Amino acid sequence: MAATPPTPVKQHIHISNQPITVNNWYKHINWFSTTLVLIIPTYGLLAIPYTPLYRSTLIWAFIYYFLTGFGITGGYHRLWSHRCYSARLPLRLLLAFVGAGAVQGSIRFWSSKHRAHHRWTDTKKDPYDALRGFFFSHLGWMLFNQDPKRIGRTDITDLDADPVVVWQHRHYGKTMMTAAWLFPMCVAGLGWGDWWGGLVYAGIVRACVVQQATFCVNSLAHWLGEQPFDDRRTPRDHFITALVTLGEGYHNFHHEFPSDYRNAISWYQYDPTKWSIYFLSTLPFHLAHSLKRFRHNEIEKGRFQQQQKALDARRSALDWGVPLGDLPVISWSEFRTTCQQYADGVAGGTALVAVAGVIHNVTDFIAEHPGGRTLIGSSVGKDATGLFNGGVYLHSNAAHNLLSTMRVGVLRGGQEVEVWKEEAMKKVKVLGAGEQVTVVRPLAEGAVAA
């Protein structure tokens, strides 16, 4: 009896790889993230017209905004994601608490995604790939379910070895609700009796602003600004992004040198996160220590290479003449014959001048020569290196550049030296002292606009 063939296993297709329909649209939405970054913030914004704003609550919301923002920029990002510095336990506990108050996931979740972003920037494995559009990199990657198999993997064993990270990840829900909403509400309520205002302004609205500000690191920082260190990927530097993100706006530098605790390296650039980390390192107990700075020499090399790349791009758009390697080699006799034909008015004749071993066609330039037709005409069919480089007139750099656009060939043997050598081989000649071919006048500087 023949064996029954095995039933083929139906392969599961992740919802993100399925088209959106009327029947499955809700499955495409990540409802947990959508609730935290869209639904609850919207509720808080709608409550503003019905909630009085007291000065004390506004000041407290402003202070807590910077604390929770620093929990992301100085904690989640520079401490745990990139290990830009080390922090003692009290500071790590504080950063874990206020970081949870920013409502952006646990340290473990946030850092793993950010490391994948750095490793797989601008690829399909980048969890918030900027090439998929501004909205996707800002919010879309959280609002819609993504196939976890498509996101690049990274090593987070160091995070799993940190008890603060592990504890916060296991108890993130309770920690987040306490830090994001209950704590700011209790401070305002117990402090000056504004319980509801504390929840709305210092809690929900403040968290919404922190979210949108730090999300700009994934979106705005890949869209607005310059690329002084590398233009092969999307990260950019801009003051506006730095202003919005507590100093994280110099993103092109950060992607090139992610282990540097600084995001802004110039004194005039706005980076309160850097200033805060440095301040914490100066305290008696050195709450922050072992601050990492990339070598200045390598930073400047990267800046110079990008500047050179930009200059090369501009240079390539200009006419520098035919490259020497692409020019035909012309003998002295051919050079002279062509010039003689020009002088005799024979068709095909060309006014050629040799300068520094390169033959130039000056036929159309004779009438435009600033020094007059006669002077340049007297050099046709001759080696004018000495005349061009000071014998008659020491020509400017602009003249060298213009001459390079007239190249038509390379003189075989260099200049008239090859002719002298050929004549010497034909007959024996007794040379007087100082008449040897190797004895020459001080060499005039050749054309350098190559």
Protein architecture, described:
The chain is mainly α. It folds into two domains: 286 residues, no CATH class; 103 residues, Flavocytochrome B2, Chain A, domain 1 (Roll). Helices cover 49% and strands 4% of the residues. It contains 19 helices and six strands. A four-stranded mixed β-sheet has the order 3-6-5-4. Strand 4 and strand 5 form a beta hairpin. Helix 3 packs across helix 4, helix 3 packs antiparallel against helix 9 and helix 4 packs across helix 9. The longest helix is centred in the first third of the chain and has 27 residues. The C terminus is likely disordered. InterPro entries: Acyl-CoA_deSatase_haem/ster-bd, Acyl-CoA_DS, Cyt_B5-like_heme/steroid-bd, Cyt_B5-like_heme/steroid_sf, Cyt_B5_heme-BS, FA_desaturase_dom, FADS-1_CS. Its main location: membrane. One of its GO terms (biological process) is unsaturated fatty acid biosynthetic process. Keywords: Electron transport, Fatty acid biosynthesis, Fatty acid metabolism, Heme, Iron, Lipid biosynthesis, Lipid metabolism, Membrane, Metal-binding, Oxidoreductase, Transmembrane, Transmembrane helix, Transport. Pfam families: Cyt-b5 (PF00173), FA_desaturase (PF00487).
